[in-house]
Design brief:
heterodimer, A: 333 residues, alpha/beta, Rossmann fold, 2 domains, 7-stranded mixed beta sheet, 5-stranded mixed beta sheet, 13 helices, 14 strands, globular, B: 340 residues, 6-stranded parallel beta sheet, 11 helices, 41% helix, binds thiamine diphosphate, binds magnesium ion
Chain lengths: 333, 340
């Protein structure tokens, strides 16, 4: 059948988004380390140098602050740079350009120039890369007004959110997951944009709401499967963007289930889960039957040893336990 | 670089350069008064003493050459022709300010005049200038991006990163190191392994040299040559200007570190006085002309100050305007600024 949608990997989905947007708009160019001739540390930019040439697919020196800032300037002049930072871990070197320049320029100059740029980078743990190469720093970016932050969990979202990001007039951080690059699924066509600030229900349920993004969606879905076997129907919701945040969809679900667990690969203190829980307490206090559960990575630098690393990052069993804890609580009447 | 005396611009332009330098001096002095009166808050960094560096630079550029600067940038905006009213109003945090009160003294921008802003993180704006140069080349325009930063900023790693990329990719950029010999209270000899900064750019295959930053015509000639290299030969350039600021680092610095004798020595080279002497000597202006020009500039500064003082404050209801390109103030979705 000609209408059949072919499954592609998360990696290919991103590649499609980049390619389609580069064809659509001459002002879109890519910049990053080893993205051209080497086709990306994760091969996301495969074939793009051959198709678009060195003007638009630019290999840089190892100089994250410099080329991220260069792209902020290019965006101020109206180009649409898409920066690849090899992994989230190296974005720390460019943090000044992201936080003090990209996110501030529209505001501090009274709206005189836009900064229409995208910074995409993969992160996350699970490959025994130890403490310096396993960060989930979503909270750091989501903390900053002026940025928009996407956290795609599926190939469809990876493509649709990135296309929206490239067409957006603000700086957008796209946090990809190293663990998802090989994940397959259907994707939309050239005109399929996924709007920011629209959560999606990944699995409906009535007993407890689980909020998760990126790779944690798959951990949450595995947990929901195990819970179903025990007669507990968990609803899994994926916000897809932290800024803007679709709090309405989350709150609607929590008001129905009266229970919530937030899963987040980052650290627990001052993190994404803490923040989402605070929003849900504020908006759903009168509906809650139990304290909101949080599942995070352990509050330690990521260890190398496989057993330690697995113990440190959220597992389906942790999510199951957190959901059961919300259900175990007696509701005083 | 050639050691022949810099070319003399036509008399009309000489007078205009002198007027702009005077305007900057008087504007800065008035800003200091407004600060002392409590009408300007935050940091206020004055460029008194650096007028030759600023006007010499701007006068050598085309009006659409993107210019970026540091927090010490009132003069750059004035030299680019930004309405002094809009600058003073910005300093006073008013609705009529060039950035509608969001930026203040350190963050002026006038994108209509290709002034791409003043920035507060030392060294942090240099990559932005590189990006503006990148865009010029990408679009095949003739623009040259010019960025002014201090000798203190030259010690930031990101500046070296930019030298490297500019040299590697031959971007149309002029790096202008305004060496006023101090970063806050730290003199060059306590901050840099080598006193000269231009050789750092030279190490990245960038044509680089040093000139007297107190001599407006020397600065102008150097910038003309640097801009020519970038515009016509599409090669980056770096000019180091040796200069001196006459006030402390900012209004909150009592300036007790620098020796009185040193200050006096540099004040003898005041760029306004030396340039006035040149103009008088060449018969380009006479004493009456100078007095008339100064009086005219004073009325401009008076008017700007009165305008700023009389301007409305920014409505607090507009606090969250400009966070994003599209207004997006839905506090209910929890992701924009949540207002009290
Ligand atoms: C990254 C950073 N570190 C420190 C400061 C504080 N600071 C502001 S200006 C300044 C001195 C900068 O000296 P220089 O670059 O020579 O410029 P000048 O003020 O002399 O014009 C310092 C240390 C800052 N704004 N940003
Ligand atoms: Mg200095």
């Amino acid at each position: 059948m000609s209408t059949e949608v072919k499954d592609v990997t998360y990696r290919e989905a991103i590649n499609q988004a980049l390619r389609e947007e580069m064809i659509r708009d001459e002002s879109v160019f890519l910049m990053g380390e080893d993205i051209g001739h080497f086709e990306g540390a994760f091969k996301v930019t495969k074939g793009l140098l051959a198709e678009f040439g060195e003007k638009r697919v630019v290999d840089t020196p190892i100089t994250e602050a410099g080329f991220t800032g260069l792209c902020v300037g290019a965006a101020m002049a109206g180009l649409r740079p898409v920066v690849e930072i090899m992994t989230v871990n190296f974005a720390l070197v460019a943090m000044d350009q992201i936080v003090s320049n990209a996110s501030k320029i529209h505001y501090m100059f009274g709206g005189q120039v836009d900064v229409p740029m995208v910074i995409r980078m993969p992160g996350g743990a699970g490959h025994q890369l130890s403490a310096q190469h396993s960060h989930s720093l979503d909270a750091m970016f989501a903390h900053v007004p002026g940025l928009k932050v996407c956290v795609p969990s599926t190939p469809e979202d990876a493509k649709g959110l990135l296309k929206t990001a490239i067409r957006d007039d603000d700086p957008v951080i796209v946090l990809e997951s190293e663990g998802l690059y090989g994940k397959k699924g259907p994707v939309g066509g050239e005109d399929h944009l996924i709007p920011f600030g629209q959560a999606v229900v990944r699995r409906p349920g009535r007993d407890c709401t689980i909020v998760a993004t990126s790779r944690m969606v798959w951990v949450a879905l595995a947990a929901a499967e195990q819970l179903a076997a025990q007669g507990v129907e968990a609803e899994v919701i994926d916000p897809r963007t932290y800024r803007p945040l679709d709090l309405d969809t989350l709150a609607e679900s929590v008001r129905r289930t009266s229970r919530a667990v937030v899963v987040d690969e980052g650290w627990p203190e001052c993190g994404i889960a803490a923040n989402l829980a605070a929003h849900l307490y504020e908006s759903c206090f009168d509906w809650l039957d139990a304290p909101i559960g949080r599942v995070n990575s352990a509050d330690v630098p990521m260890p190398y040893a496989k057993n330690l690393e697995q113990a440190a990052i959220p597992q389906p069993a942790d999510v199951v336990a957190a959901v059961m804890a919300t259900l175990a609580r007696e509701v005083p009447r | 670089m050639s050691t022949s005396p810099p070319p003399i611009p036509p008399p009309e332009e000489m007078r205009e350069i002198f007027r702009t330098m005077t305007l900057i001096r008087r504007f800065e002095e008035r800003a200091a008064e407004e600060y002392m009166a409590g009408r300007i808050g935050g940091f206020l960094h004055l460029a008194i003493g650096e007028e030759a560096a600023i006007v010499g630079t701007v006068s050598a550029l085309r009006p659409d050459d993107p210019l970026t600067s540091t927090y010490r940038e009132h003069g750059q905006a004035l030299a680019r022709g930004t309405d002094p009213r809009a600058i003073m109003a910005e300093l006073l945090g008013r609705e009529t300010g060039i950035c509608r009160g969001r930026g203040g003294s350190m963050h002026l921008m006038d994108v209509q005049r290709a002034f791409y802003g003043g920035y507060g993180i030392v060294g942090g704006a240099v990559p932005l200038a590189l990006g503006l140069a990148w865009a010029a080349r990408y679009r095949e325009t003739e623009q040259v991006s010019v960025t002014m930063f201090g000798e203190g900023a030259a010690n930031q790693g990101v500046v070296s990163e930019c030298f490297n990329m500019a040299g590697l990719w031959d971007l149309p950029i002029v790096f202008l190191i305004l060496n006023n010999q101090y970063g806050m209270g730290t003199p060059v000899e306590r901050a840099a392994a080598v006193d000269d900064f231009f050789p750092r750019a030279a190490a990245y295959d960038i044509e680089s040299w040093k000139v007297d930053g107190m001599d407006v015509l020397a600065v102008r000639a150097a910038l003309s040559e640097a801009a020519r290299l970038a515009r016509e030969e599409r090669r980056p350039a770096c000019v180091e200007l040796l200069a001196y600021r006459y006030r402390g680092h900012s209004m909150s610095d009592p300036d007790t570190v620098r020796a009185a004798e040193e200050k006096e020595r540099w004040k003898a080279r005041d760029p306004l006085i030396t340039f006035e002497r040149v103009l008088l000597g060449e018969g380009i202006i006479d004493a009456e002309g100078v007095a008339a020009m100064q009086a005219e500039v004073d009325t401009v500064v008076d008017d700007a100050t009165a305008f700023a003082q009389g301007s409305p404050e920014v409505p607090v209801a507009d606090l969250a305007d400009y966070v994003y390109a599209e207004p997006w103030n839905d506090a209910a979705n929890g992701s924009a600024l949540v207002r009290p």
